[in-house]
Amino acid sequence: xxxxxVILFLIGKYQxxxxxxxxxxxxxxKRVEIVSYPSRTNWQEKDRFKxxxxxxxxxxxxxxxxxxxxxxxxxxxxxxxxxDAFKExxxxxxxxxxxxxPRHLIVCFDENNKVYGYFELCIECGTYDSSxxxxxxxxxxxxxxxxxxxxxxxxxxKHFTDNN
Length: 164
Hints:
By secondary structure, the chain is α+β, with helices and mostly antiparallel strands. The protein has one domain (2-155). Helix content is 35%, strand content 17%. It has helices at residues 2-26, 54-59, 76-87, 142-155; strands at 31-36, 70-73, 104-109, 115-122, 127-130. A five-stranded antiparallel beta sheet has the order 2-1-3-4-5. A hairpin with a 4-residue loop joins strand 4 and strand 5. The longest helix is centred in the first third of the chain and has 25 residues, at 2-26.
């Protein structure tokens, strides 16, 4: 019984700490955009970039427009739903695969309209890349990817695979 109470306490503390990390990050975010695009393996060779270069491209907002399928600026209600999704932790199975062919990018802007943080995700394999200040605020996985796909569709994103 005591072990169960300790476990429940630790889970509650983890959830509280997680919520605080998310709140701290998003308190500095004034605008959020979600961008969808085809897998970079389908881009022309000269337009491809390494994942390690992603932060430079995002900070300069230099994605080639011809590759962008959807770009949605979230309203306040949508932003709050996204924040809630970041706060929901998965204490069960958290699966990841190794494909990493991301097609979605969450870009957060500060009050000066500068990129404050980003989170690029591959819904198909449950892996991601993020800015340093977003590391650790989302335990992303295949299971969480399903949740984000539903949320993105609700927001109006239509591109999820290179077949649609």
